[in-house]
Design brief:
The chain is of the alpha/beta class. It has helices at about 45-65, 75, 90-100, 105-115, 140-145, 165-180, 205-215, 235-240, 260-280; strands at about 10-15, 20-30, 30-35, 65-70, 70, 80-85, 180-190, 195, 220, 245-250. Helix 1 (about 45-65) crosses helix 9 (about 260-280) and helix 7 runs antiparallel to helix 9.
């Protein structure tokens, strides 16, 4: 992609626990940024594919001055950049796909905590759920984890022993703090839902934009269940910057979603991706 599209700049914004590059795809020329994040949970690797395909199609439309699903790409990217981080948790994705051989020095401990079944692995290399590790309602979420019997490293939903303890989390928070971010959207699977709020600092425009996303898709506006409230990137972004943040749960069924769902997921989410970038 880096060689094929001159308008698509690919860089790295950090490294994972096991030393893998965390890539960022950048398109546009402005100083203000819109951020999309996928691949936070290992088992949700389909979100990485979604953002990679969107990045390529956006680059094609941008270079050829074409429309993308009815949207003017030049208009979307006027005076701003779109930053796409397709795989925030590359270790977790590789573990979910390849199992124990991808665990590196954590092979024995990871094998023990999932009892050898890596097919539902969401955490990073040492069993910390990145989307429970952000410093937004982290203490309250930690109590909910304990009530659910989660006290230490696990395949999912363990938020670490302190917020922002993981290199993947630090990579994303550092990037947001060092750049002017207008809005941020995290992509997860599954449920066909849009989450847009977190506490009193949620901007009023967030719901307006979320409603527009829902109108152009089959997705519904929702609020997460208690164990999924707080600790996430969207929650932290809203709390930290008082700007619009969203979580979009793509597809339906049970994770990991089958690859056969991808064409439908991509078709349903292109309008959401465009609206989130345009901010209308």
């Amino acid at each position: 992609l880096n060689e094929k599209y001159k308008t698509l700049k690919i860089t790295t914004c950090g490294k994972s626990l096991l030393g893998k590059e965390i890539f960022a795809f950048v398109i546009g020329e402005g100083k203000k940024n819109i951020v999309y994040v996928g691949g936070t949970h290992g088992v949700e690797w389909l979100t990485s594919l979604l953002l990679l395909k969107f990045a390529e199609n956006l680059a094609i439309a941008y270079e050829n001055e074409e429309m993308l699903s009815g949207f003017d790409v030049k208009d979307i990217l006027e005076n701003k950049k779109l930053v796409i981080i397709p795989e925030l948790n590359p270790d977790g994705i590789e573990i979910a796909i390849k199992g124990a051989p991808a665990c590196g020095k954590y092979k024995e401990s990871d094998y023990e905590i999932c009892k050898g079944d890596f097919s539902y692995w969401s955490a990073n290399g040492r069993g910390v759920d990145i989307n429970h590790n952000f410093n937004a309602g982290w203490e309250e979420l930690r109590e909910l984890e304990r009530k659910s019997g989660i006290y230490g490293p696990a395949p999912t939903r363990f938020g670490g022993y302190r917020p922002e303890s993981e290199p993947e989390t630090i990579t994303l928070t550092k990037f947001c703090r060092e750049n002017k971010i207008l809005s941020a959207t995290a992509f997860h699977t599954q449920g066909e839902e849009i989450y847009w709020s977190f506490g009193k600092h949620t901007p009023p425009v967030s719901k307006v934009i979320a409603r527009r996303m829902a109108e152009l898709s089959t997705y519904t506006l929702s609020r997460p269940e208690s164990i999924a409230t707080g600790g996430g990137f969207k929650d932290w972004f809203i709390q930290e910057f008082r700007r619009p943040g969203y979580t979009i749960e793509v597809g339906s069924g049970e994770n990991p979603l089958p690859l056969s769902q991808f064409p439908e997921i991509y078709r349903d989410n292109v309008p959401l991706l465009n609206i989130a970038a345009l901010g209308i």
